[in-house]
């Protein structure tokens, strides 16, 4: 269900279940988490096989879990996977080509950079059939697009095309080749990428963030002092 390929500083992580629009079971979530946490490259590129990015949770899995009283456990696995994407030192780029729905949007929200192709569409349709995205989406969506846009997007259940998603900040770029964005990020210094992601993701109190920022800069300056001399 999850395939990886490591090339030139980028681990390509493919959700490979096209017959189910790359919907994720519990095992699929665990495999995705492992692929991200074990990434040996400075950048990971998350994509879907076939014509979809990801349909989110496999609804038959959700139904089975609910019948067994294990729905919360399934959600915890989804939250843990999204948290792994957000918290890893690896920069994670989502390449959204085709539909992203529900949990697929939530996984993209956990990524550091979201790039859509012109044919991408994004939606949180759970509200139309009595659910909502619970892999951290209610936390991350307002942080990414603001509360007003988050409420409109989620409560309406409507589907956004790539350009409208870009307008509200749900994706940062629209291009025909999202992988090229991951590759361009990987061209940068890997240690700087790691420290910069940590700092930008830090939610500590301001003075603690600034102290960590100073320490990270000192580490990088020491590591690259020779190169800095050459740049003058």
Draw up the topology in text.
Elements: E1 2-7, E2 10-15, H1 26-37, E3 43-48, H2 59-67, H3 71-87, E4 91-96, E5 99-101, H4 103-110, E6 113-116, E7 121-123, H5 137-145, H6 147-156, E8 159-161, H7 162-167, E9 173-174, H8 178-186, H9 190-201, H10 206-223, H11 225-231
Parallel strand pairs: 2-3, 3-4, 4-6, 5-7, 6-9
Antiparallel strand pairs: 1-2, 7-8
Helix pairs in contact: 1-3, 2-3, 3-4, 4-5, 5-6, 9-10
Can you put this structure into words, describing what you see?
This protein is an alpha/beta fold. The chain has two domains: 2-185, 2-enoyl-CoA Hydratase, Chain A, domain 1 (Alpha-Beta Complex); 188-231. Helix content is 50%, strand content 17%. It contains eleven helices and nine strands. It has helices at residues 26-37, 59-67, 71-87, 103-110, 137-145, 147-156, 162-167, 178-186, 190-201, 206-223, 225-231; strands spanning 2-7, 10-15, 43-48, 91-96, 99-101, 113-116, 121-123, 159-161, 173-174. It has a six-stranded mixed beta sheet with strand order 1-2-3-4-6-9, sandwiched between helices. A three-stranded mixed beta sheet has the order 5-7-8. α1 (26-37) links the parallel β2 and β3 (43-48). α5 crosses α6 (147-156) and α9 packs antiparallel against α10 (206-223). It comes from Natronomonas pharaonis (strain ATCC 35678 / DSM 2160 / CIP 103997 / JCM 8858 / NBRC 14720 / NCIMB 2260 / Gabara). InterPro entries: ClpP/crotonase-like_dom_sf, Enoyl-CoA_hyd/isom_CS, Enoyl-CoA_hydra/iso. It is an enzyme of class 4 (lyase).
């Amino acid at each position: 269900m999850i395939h990886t390929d490591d090339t030139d500083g980028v681990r390509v992580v493919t959700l490979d279940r096209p017959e189910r629009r790359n919907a994720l079971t519990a095992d699929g979530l665990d495999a995705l988490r492992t692929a991200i946490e074990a990434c040996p490259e400075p950048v990971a590129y998350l994509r879907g096989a076939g014509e979809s990015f990801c349909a989110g949770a496999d609804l038959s899995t959700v139904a089975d879990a609910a019948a067994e009283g294990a729905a919360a456990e399934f959600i915890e696995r989804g939250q843990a996977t999204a948290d792994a994407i957000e918290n890893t030192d690896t920069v994670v780029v989502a390449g959204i080509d085709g539909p992203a729905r529900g949990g697929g949007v939530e996984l993209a929200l956990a990524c550091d950079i979201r790039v859509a192709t012109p044919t991408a569409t994004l939606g949180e349709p759970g509200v139309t059939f009595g659910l909502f995205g619970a892999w951290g989406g209610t936390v991350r969506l307002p942080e990414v697009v603001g509360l007003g846009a988050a409420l409109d997007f989620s409560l309406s259940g409507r589907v956004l095309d790539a350009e409208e998603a870009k307008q509200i900040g749900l994706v940062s770029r629209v291009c025909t080749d999202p992988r090229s964005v991951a590759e361009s990020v990987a061209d940068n210094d890997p240690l700087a990428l790691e420290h910069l992601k940590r700092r930008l993701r830090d939610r500590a109190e301001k003075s603690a963030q600034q102290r960590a920022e100073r320490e990270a800069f000192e580490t990088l300056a020491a590591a690259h002092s020779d190169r800095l001399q050459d740049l003058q």
